[in-house]
Design a protein that fits this description.
There is one protein chain. Helix content is 46%, strand content 9%. It is mainly alpha-helical and 68 residues long. It has one domain. Strands 1-2 form a two-stranded parallel sheet. The longest helix is centred in the C-terminal third of the chain and has 14 residues.
Length: 68
């Protein structure tokens, strides 16, 4: 989510290599948009969403896995 710099980009590459999904927080809902911007600018983000949209996405994924 919100953060500074590009130090998370290598980790995102690992997430993608393991068939994970990267969702970056949008500029409007970020306090600091450095890391989310780096994810988007490098093309590693599958989606760029508000913090509220990310929360909804996580709830849906959690329900699909049978968790409440």
């Amino acid at each position: 989510m919100t953060g500074m710099g590009r130090d998370g980009v290598d980790g995102l590459r690992s997430v993608i290599q393991m068939s994970g999904t990267v969702v970056a927080q949008d500029a409007e809902s970020s306090v600091v948009h450095g890391m989310p911007r780096a994810a988007d600018e490098t093309g590693l983000a599958h989606a760029v969403e508000s913090v509220e949209q990310i929360a909804r996405r996580l709830r849906v994924l959690n329900r699909r896995r049978g968790n409440r």
